[in-house]
Amino acid sequence: MDVTTFTYQYQANIFSLPYSLRAKICECLYEDGTWESLRAILSFALTCSWFTDPALDVLWRTLPSIVPLLRTLPKDLSRLDFLRDPIPSDFWRFEEYACRVQRLQMPTSASTSDIFAPRYFYSRPIITTHLWYALSQAGPKPLLPNLKALCYTDQIGHNAWIAAPPDFLNAYLGPSVTSVDLHLRPKRVQHALGIVARSSPGIQRLSMHIEPPSHADPPSHAFLKWDKTMTILCTLTGDCLRGFDCLTAVELDGLRITPDGLERLGQLPFLHRLAFDAYCADLLWDAPHEQRGFYLFPTLETLAVRTNMLEWCIIFVETVASIRLQALSITSIGPPPPPIAMAALSEVLGMGPWKDTLHTLQILPGRLDDTRYAPETYRPSDVFAPLLTLSALRRISMYGRCRVPRGGTTLEAWAAAWPNLDHLDLRDPPEDRPQGY
Q: What pLDDT tens digit does each residue of the chain (437 aa) get?
């Protein structure tokens, strides 16, 4: 008796696609983030129920505020303010969509880079304090259980578009949050840091920006006006930075950080990226690392310092112990340092433990167009000779209120010491350039 074996060949179809592949298709439809792609993926979600869930996950993954979620509440409860006290059953649709939100990115300006920004910024939907209180009492805790990243901007003058009470972060933050970017008024910074540390102990990225009174004077401009008599609006101490042991990236813009606060950052075991402002009229860092008894920033890979006195960085850089430092940027917004100070800084950089890893170095001694200060002239033998030990350098920038003469012999020495160099930026001050340049 002949036995015939029949092999059934499975034919793939749309219903055989795994969730991950369906989600990838939806992401491709929405990758450019335009209104056209928004309409396309919405139509796609309504075309086939098999794609509804992954399409909704993409649509709700990033929100500009919680206003779209409030519109899922019952009509008799109202939307942007409550006409009655809510009860837990009012939030069943809210919770269904809230669990899909992974990033809450409130626009920091009326930028057109985000399709949500113009609509929500100019319409300024106001969330009242009463609504915040009702949400905290009856709403889910946290409001967004799977939120990973929060970007929040405080209300600013006449452009206020959201009114959040002091404890508003309690409603958003939870153990799933790993990235927080806050643009706050000075008086709210320390309180907000305490809430972040308690609610999201696993946070890895922290970015704090001081918001000025109006959009006409953003934080970077306010910082550029610092002088020895200007009062800084917010101070961060070591106590403010406790509870952030998992941080890998920190950015502090327009805040004054005390020496113990800086030491606290330097002791973080996983910190890879750090950018901060150092106002040296208040920040004294005059004890060398031998007297401190320890080195700081052992895992740092990227460091950016903006200061009103570049000489301060000479002592600070000596305390950096990382053997993995790859990129270093030092920017002075004050007068250019004298040649002896620039030579001392170069010597410290050349003796650092990052000789085989540092590939990007940027030193800006004063703003290029700041004609209040006369340019300093730095001899290559003083400034660049100590840096010749940094064999891994690929990008070097040094410009501002300074001149660096360079000749054939100097360039040959640089080519021999830095064989992988592919970017060299030594711009002259504007007054030194030919007419029309």
A: 455 554 555 566 777 778 888 888 888 877 766 778 788 888 888 887 788 888 888 889 888 888 888 888 888 876 667 778 888 888 899 999 999 999 998 754 434 344 444 444 434 556 677 777 778 788 888 889 999 999 988 754 444 444 466 677 888 888 999 999 998 888 888 889 999 999 999 999 999 988 655 443 434 444 444 443 334 567 888 899 999 999 999 999 888 888 888 889 999 999 999 999 887 764 455 544 444 445 789 999 999 999 888 888 888 898 899 999 999 999 988 888 899 999 999 999 999 999 999 999 999 998 887 788 888 888 888 888 999 999 999 999 998 888 888 766 788 888 899 999 999 998 887 766 655 55
State the amino acid at position 218 in one-letter form.
P
CA-atom Rg of the chain in angstroms: 27
User: CA 204, CA 246: separation in Å to the nearest integer?
Assistant: 6
Cis amide bond preceding 186, omega within 30: no
- For residue 54 the two structure tokens come to 């992954």
pTM above 0.90, yes or no: no
Three-class secondary structure of residue 252 per DSSP: strand
Taking a C-beta distance cutoff of 8 angstroms, is the pair 86, 77 a contact? Answer: yes
Give bridge partners of residue 365 from the DSSP assignment: 332
Cα 341 versus chain centre, distance: 31
CA 80, 45, 176: angle at the middle one, nearest 5? 60
Burial label, 154 (beta-carbon count in 10 A; 0-12, 13-18, 19+): buried
Cβ contacts of residue 193 below 8 Å, gap of 6+? 208, 236, 240, 241
**Chain centroid to CA 275: how far?**
9
Structure token digits, residue 351: 């003796």
Q: Please, how many CA atoms are within 13 Å of residue 138, restricted to the half-sphere of its CB?
A: 16
Query: Which of 424, 422, 367, 369 is closest to 397 using CA atoms?
Result: 424
Enter the tokens of residue 356: 């085989």
> Residues for the chain: how many in total?
437
Q: How far apart are the first and last CA of the chain?
A: 95
Cβ atoms of residues 272 and 299 within 8 Å:
yes
Determine the Cα–Cα distance for residues 75 and 96; give it in Å rounded to an integer: 17
Under 8 Å between Cβ of 112 and 87:
no
